[in-house]
Amino acid sequence: MVELTTNYLGIKLKNPLVVSPSPLCDNIDNIKRMEERGASAVVLHSLFEEQITLLSNELDNNLSYGTESFAEAITYFPELSDFRMGPEAYLEHIHKAKQSVSIPIMGSLNGVSKGGWIEYAKKIQQAGADALELNIYFIPTDPNMTSDYVSNMYVDLVKEIRKEVTIPLAVKIGPYFSSLPNVAKRLAEAGANALVFFNRFYQPDFDLDNLEVTPHINLSSSNTLLLRLRWVAILYGKINIDFAITGGVHTAEDVVKSMMAGAKVAMMTSALLKYGIPHLSTILKKLEQWLAEHEYDSIEVMQGSMSQKSVTEPTAFERANYMHALTRYTAGS
Amino acid sequence: MSRPMHTLDGNEAVATIAYQVNDVAAIYPITPSSPMGEFMDQWAAEGRKNMWGNIPQVVEMQSEAGAAGAVHGALQAGALTTTFTASQGLMLMLPNMYKIAGELTPTVFHVSARSLAIHALSIFGDHSDVMAARTTGFALLASASVQEAMDFALIAQSATLKSRVPFLHFFDGFRTSHEVVKIEMLTDEDIRTMIDEEYVRAHRERALNPDKPVIRGTAQNPDVYFQGREACNPYYLACPTIVQEYMDRFARITGRQYHLFDYIGAPDAEQILILMGSGCEAVTETIEYLVNRGEKVGAIKVRLYRPFDTKALLKAIPTSVKKIAVLDRCKESGAPGEPLYLDIVNAFNEAYSNGDIQVMPKIIGGRYGLSSKEFTPAMIKGVLDELSKDKPKNHFTVGIKDDVANTSIDYDPNFSTEDPSVVRAVFYGLGSDGTVGANKNSIKIIGEDTPNYAQGYFVYDSKKSGSMTVSHLRFGPKEIHSNYLITRANFVACHQFSFIEKYDILKLAENNAIFLLNTPYGPDEVWNYLPRTTQKRIIDKKIKFYVIDAVKVAREAGMGGRINTIMQTCFFAISGILPREEAIQAIKESIKKTYGKRGETIVQKNWQAVDMTLDHLYEVKVPEQVTSSFDFAPPVPEEAPDFVKNILGKIITGEGDELSVSQLPADGTFPTGTTKWEKRNIGLEIPVWDPEVCIQCGKCVMVCPHAVIRAKIYDPKYLEKAPPTFKSTEPKWKEFKHLRYTLQVSPEDCTGCGLCYEVCIAKSKKEVKNRGVTMQLQAPLRETERENWNFFESIPYFNRSEVNLNLVKDIQLLQPLFEFSGACAGCGETPYVKLMSQLFGDRALVANATGCSSIYGGNLPTTPWTTNAEGKGPAWCNSLFEDNAEFGMGMRVAIDTQLSYAQYLLKQLETHIGTELVTSILTADQTTEEGIQNQRKRISILKQKLSSLNNPQAKELLYVADVLVKRSVWVLGGDGWAYDIGYGGLDHVIASNRDINILVMDTEVYSNTGGQCSKATPRAAVAKFAAGGKPAPKKDLALMAMTYGTCYVAKVAMGANDAQTIKAFREAEAYPGPSLIIAYCHCIAHGYNLIMGLEQQKKAVATGHWQLMRFNPALLNEGKNPLQLDSKAPSLALQEYVYNETRYKMLSLSNPTVAKMLLDEAQKDIRMRWKLYEYLASMSCDELQSEMKNIQSAVTENQTQ
Q1: Taking CB atoms and an 8 Å limit, are A69 and B1010 in contact across chains?
Q2: Yes or no: is domain B636-671 CATH 3.30.200.20?
Q3: Domain boundaries in chain B?
Q4: Which of A17, A95, B251, B290 has the greatest number of CB atoms lying within 10 Å of its CB?
């Protein structure tokens, strides 16, 4: 019998398959099915502070617009006693999820302001989340904004939240830093317990018929995984922090690769959206088979086994590797 | 026992009691009573319980007639039942009121008394409606203030239960229904003490009950009907005593003693006034003032008007009284006097005849305050002065100048009884800036956080876009009776700088007043931007002058254009009513209470605005001299017609009260085409045309709700005198290349809604944000574009007969005969109205149902229906809300009659006129523009010939000859009319086979009265009276009309398919029978930025929520299926459409489970409807006819059951 357990964020998980945030996690029945199909933990969809703010502003504008202007129509809508404008519905969802399954439930928070982050982070902890994943994504557009300024913003945010919450804290970031290792190190020092590589967001695309910018996102594929593997492999053992890989985990082999690079868990969304929740048990079964066939006793044994510090050719993870690969590819085609 | 003091308006005060003491409310929206029903519905939705621990059932009916019927039924079945209404609504209830009274059924109808639609509609207050109900057998109990409205609501309920006489409790519309005042609330214990359970049980005992059945409502004959009618007398005789008993009990509980007739004034008064309603408050203030000065005057406040207790009246009047002036707030044309006056005369006459009194006082009657016309202490003093004359004028009017029948009396407008201890503040705001909302909060803060009494009254504009609001706030240590507008303000705030250029804002300011101005100019520069009159007033009145750039503060705080809390903070800081810190804390708490549920973000940004305010508030050092060289801009240009300048211009500047009777039409007839003279300059941005980018598609012209963007093709010769910045280009019509094309905007009429920009598909190749038209700031363009517009107006419109009326591109060349209306910016209705006017306006008669379209189409001062260069254009009339289809049918029948008469006369006069002309007129093809133009020419020749004939028949024909040119009858209205209140008539008309064109502008809600649910409201949408989301699907009016098989039916959505819209309009008009066009209209009541209105229309169609279709019975003659589906099968999930709109989204935020359930049901509705229509459209002609008959029988059977 192969030992699949892994230790992520100080929590012992029954296997490294974690479901990352997606609309599937909005439904409690889906979360139950995820547990049944073998997920070891679920990260709920992100609570978007920006979205809450936008919704509030929209509602306020639309309920106020045109009111108190015309004697016959002083208002246009009934005065409802309450709106669930804030994070209440989300917190209730955490609570329900916790009641419905025994696997750990992790909250996820996507925010823009310190005030909002801290407030919501505390509420997520109070709602019973086993851990909190901070999803930070910032696109600098001001040429005067320095990279230091941006990375400091990330670090300060994590420090502030660390002060306020006691549950484990994972930080999900993108790869676009001048020095990702330095940022990773500083985030660890700021109190993050894990780094999740990497977030994926909508990218603007052009609609050439209407000359409009349209948001676009593709489901990930196993190719998406490669960027994550590289950076986890590079950082494993250099920074005392857990790593999680999200984006591109579609097969049992992808899970194995993630573990070998040094991740404690491999997170899945696109594969589940594509193949459905039962795909979890398929991967799990294949993972066990792979481990058995290759005579691994446990997952933990392989974690970091192909990280930069563990391979014979560490430079393979650096820039030269790219050049080399490209050369070989051209030669062979 | 101390009771809570709350600050609220009359409607809420009444609803608070009505909710507690009723089991059922059957309601229908009508201004100004709608909020009472809305409160009931809201509280029921929240699960609030009445005094018996039950949640009342609140049902919205299809009309007031329906509401009264439901009330009658509920009463008969034993429920304590109420309703709320006003004006025409009360008129629709009259038949049932007789029944309810005849059956001695206890109930209270609460009426916010409002003018009746007579020579004109008015939403404002007087007693025309309740006086018309005085013969129904209902008791009439009049409240004069918000406090009394709450008190009398309870006293009426107590008395009706014991007396069995139903009550109409009324209070003046707007003045009391909408006045916000601090009052003492009645407690649950008070209510329990006043309601005697034995009479409640007695009512329930009388209920229809199959366990002990009775019958009521029999038919009787001459032998017994009369006696039966007299059998109720004891109940009516007992009623006044019962009312007084409860008034006495009420006094024991609350300390407020009322009587059937309350006397105020000197005990030895010689002259008194008698009146009822809100006027009593101003009278109270005036009489107290005069008595304190030793005058022997007094007044009777009539509380119980029916049953009229003569003895109680006489008992209340001091024996010293020698002269009485009776004031009626209504007019009964042709009567020997108004109702209250006649009743008082009769009371004294009877008393004198009976020997109860020995001397008859001199009694005169007069009219005041119609349609909320101001009724001030000055006018009251004027009446008393008139009364003191040896020969006082009888049947007088006060408050107006009647220079026709000379009924009016004079008064000194400077007479004032304003208490110096009362702070009087007037605020001028823009409708969208939140001024009124903030002032309501201020009044509540003052009323509830200080020992002061407080009063707020709010005056709104008649336009729906860019409107001005004026808030009148009073507060002080004593109870406030001054229920008239402030005429001497010690605080004036102007929240919109542009008003300074137009209005004499400081006219009301008294000496040493404070003036607060929101302005982009700082304290050192603002002076030079003030008109001369304003500068002079500031200097002469020694006004303390403060400025703030609230727009800047609002922008920095993320508040957009909402400056309300900023100006509110300034008001508190300057007025010093509360210590600053305390005031700011109170404002913040009020913000939290008002906006808290919309999210913390909203609270925080408002708080931030409050915190930033005082750093931006400056006092202006007032110069000693007037320095400005300019004064207020004239309301209309000098070249406007005299009527517009002298009459409408006065109304525009807020001086309509100064117009005399002779200046107004006696029958309500006004000239058309007057909006073009009222340049409102409300658009911050206007579209600017780029001829290089524009493809001349005409879409912008078509969607413009205010007809401010227009296109012309014309001979280049007209450009000779063009202004330097006037643009033109080669037309993109191959046959008109030799001409020029211009797209021009009227900068001062544009509301800046941006629909033209959104619909524009031509984008610049260099920068895609620049389109054929691009929005730019109006102010810098105003002068040049005004000149360009005036020049554009001088160029003739293109010849209609050369235009292809099937093409959007060509329609842009037709002159709109509906322009610059007062509709909301971005309105979804007016583009359809405008299209109709472009296509058929020069020969159209329009019957317009009451609602948004009658308001933006016919509200003074200026109206949008206009004429072409030949002086031809739509002739428009509004009858009522409920009868519009029938009204239009009347027009059609009249035209048909005149047409057949004209044809008969033509034949009779053939020898005189000439066979060729007669034949050509009678056989003329008028299906094309060219055909119509030719017929016009023939009729012109005919008229010339007829003028020279000395023949009686020729003279007759001369008067009816115009109808020989095809007339187009259009019946316009909203869904509230077509689906609900007017459906019976609509159904009859579409079954009539008459050539009538009906345009239903479907906003899916009662828009004009503020968004109440109609049967057009879709499932899952929230609306007033459907606060929990509408559970039932939208009525399929199109399908119902199709079942006749003889009615042309179309569903259109201009934003989704403009070509189909045009096709439907043209087919409908061409079809010789009834036609029904149901047009999707985005609306402010849907709750989103209307700039996205056209996009939402596309989504409505793409989801299948709104199917585009045409059903043309003319195709049956060709053996074709008349049903054509013009939109594709649903391709978008419903939620992609609905959750862009607050009406749906708010339910998902308040009750996600129900929202999801209703959304799923609504999605199923769409699938089912699509399948049904697809099935019907796929049939052969014969199969469809047979299927329609089956549907019709099923519908008929269903209705019969």
Answers
A1: no
A2: no
A3: 5-252, 259-398, 425-620, 636-671, 681-814, 886-959, 1004-1200
A4: A17
Chain A positions in Cβ-Cβ contact with residue B1142 (cut-off 8 Å): 58-59, 62-63, 77
pTM of the model: 0.94
Q: Does A29 touch chain B (CB under 8 A)?
A: no
Q: Residue B40 corresponds to which tokens in the numbers above?
A: 């009931």
> How many other C-beta atoms can be found within 10 angstroms of the C-beta atom of residue B792?
24
Interface contact B41, partner A, CB < 8 A? yes
**Which CATH superfamily is B1004-1200 part of?**
Thiamin diphosphate (ThDP)-binding fold, Pyr/PP domains (3.40.50.970)
pLDDT of residue B724: 97
Please classify residue B746 by burial: count the beta carbons closer than 10 Å to its beta carbon, then call 0-12 exposed, 13-18 middle and 19+ buried. buried
Residue B285 and residue B481 in contact, taking contact as beta carbons nearer than 8 Å: yes
**Which DSSP state fits B1035?**
P
Name the residue among A60, A211, A212 with its Cβ closest to that of B598.
A60
Greatest pairwise CA separation for chain A in angstroms: 81
Q: Do A77 and B469 touch (CB under 8 A)?
A: no
The DSSP H or E segment spanning B1198 is helix B1181-1200
Superfamily holding B5-252: Thiamin diphosphate (ThDP)-binding fold, Pyr/PP domains (3.40.50.970)
Q: Among this protein's residues, is B386 annotated catalytic?
A: no
Residue A321 in domain: no
Q: Which of B174, B597, B1011 sits opposite A83 (nearest CB)?
A: B597
Q: How confident is the model at residue A53 (pLDDT cuts 50, 70, 90)?
A: confident
B384-402: pLDDT as tens digits: 999 999 999 999 999 999 9
Q: Give residues 76 to 135 of A whose Cβ lies within 8 Å of B.
A: 76-86, 89
pLDDT digits (tens, 9 = 90+) for B560-607: 888 999 999 999 999 888 898 999 999 999 999 989 889 888 999 999
Spatial separation of the C-alpha atoms in residues B777 and B768, rounded to whole Å: 19
Mean model confidence pLDDT for chain B: 96
In terms of Cβ atoms closer than 10 Å to its own Cβ (0-12, 13-18, 19+), residue B624 is exposed
Cα angle for residues B22, B28, B33 (degrees, 5° grid): 80
Res A332 pLDDT > 50: no
**Closest residue of B to A208, CA-based?**
B768
ipTM of the modeled complex: 0.93
> What is the spatial distance between Cα B37 and Cα B109, in angstroms, rounded to a whole number?
12
Q: Could you tell me the end-to-end alpha-carbon distance of chain B, in angstroms, rounded to an integer? A: 55
| Tokens (6 digits) for B1194 | 């099923």
Q: Residue B1118: which residues within 8 A CB-CB, separation 6 or more?
A: none
Q: Would the CB atoms of B431 and A55 count as touching at under 8 Å?
A: no
Any residues with CB less than 8 A from the CB of A296 and at least 6 apart, and which? A2, A302
B699 in Cβ contact with B761 (< 8 Å): yes
- Angle (CA) B827-B833-B834 rounded to 5° is 90
Q: Which two tokens stand for residue B344?
A: 């008082």
Query: What's the CATH code of the domain at A88?
Result: 3.20.20.70
> How many domains are contained in chain A?
1
Low-confidence ranges of chain B (pLDDT < 70): 1, 1192, 1195-1201
Of B7, B22, B31, B569, the catalytic one is B31
pLDDT digits (tens, 9 = 90+) for A183-210: 999 999 999 999 999 988 778 899 999 8
pLDDT digits (tens, 9 = 90+) for A208-250: 998 999 887 788 888 899 999 999 999 999 999 999 999 999 9
Range of the domain at A215: 6-308
* C-beta of residue B1057 within 8 angstroms of C-beta of residue B1043: no
Question: Is any Cβ of chain A less than 8 angstroms from the Cβ of B560?
Answer: yes
d(CA B843, CA B935): 12
